[in-house]
Design a protein that fits this description.
single chain, about 250 residues, alpha/beta, seven-stranded parallel sheet, globular, binds nicotinamide-adenine-dinucleotide
Amino acid sequence: MTASTNEFQGRTYVITGGASGLGLESARHLAARGANLVLADVDTALLATAAAELPAERTSTIPADVRKPADCEAMMQLAVARYGALDGAVCSAGIDAVTPALETPVEVWQHVLDVNLTGSFLSAQAAARALLAGGRRGSIVTFASGIAVRGRAGGPHYAASKAGIVGLSKSLALEFARHGIRVNAVAPGIVDTPFARKSMNDAQLAARAGQVPLGRIGEPDDIAPVVAFLLSDASGWMTGQTLHANGGMLMV
Ligand SMILES: NC(=O)c1ccc[n+]([C@@H]2O[C@H](COP(=O)([O-])OP(=O)(O)OC[C@H]3O[C@@H](n4cnc5c(N)ncnc54)[C@H](O)[C@@H]3O)[C@@H](O)[C@H]2O)c1
């Protein structure tokens, strides 16, 4: 489901992890409402496929690894160079790993923290720098998870990274508020994306759906409007918040 207003016309957003799943669905939603977009992702093949379905004159892509500060700066600079200014960022790039704590090598722990937590920090930092340089107010949306609150057996790294993103987002919100830059997190429950399909098969997803009060797991377009809301002026008095969207699976 996409809205057809031009609420975001003339506004420019960078979406990390924009080639797939929730980042791509957010791109579709924002594009349908007039936004200029820069999709940044490590997966260049997926980036090309994603860009092909979005308005060519308002969509740019850049291969980028959110673990690298220079890549994060480059994606923001591309947005400024191509569309004149930046209005915000969606930090959706993320990975999962399922390893019991007792059998988790430090390399796996570090990799998940590097992509999810450090990558979100570097993306948000670069976005804030570009917003400040352009003298713009803006909105940055990070991706936490219900697992940040509930934890997950077999996911010490993932849960820690997502809980870290909640603290990160609050801290950035406090630091950037005086510049009119808002930072909020969206915390999805299980949503049917390639990410979820990597760790769960059809039967497991169906079993999880049965546990959700609203009776189903999420679809990407359950989350994209929440992202759009947090970017929009409608949430102009919200910062440092974590918005949970999970069919009632977790109530905080
Ligand atoms: N799908 C869910 O059930 C769910 C639930 C809660 C939170 N989340 C979070 O939502 C975000 C998006 O998840 P998704 O379901 O869309 O996953 P996805 O796998 O469909 O998309 C993630 C994208 O991030 C990209 N990416 C991975 N590492 C990167 C890196 N180092 N630099 C740049 N890009 C990189 C991938 O190539 C991919 O295109 C993630 O942060 C995830 O933790 C997802």
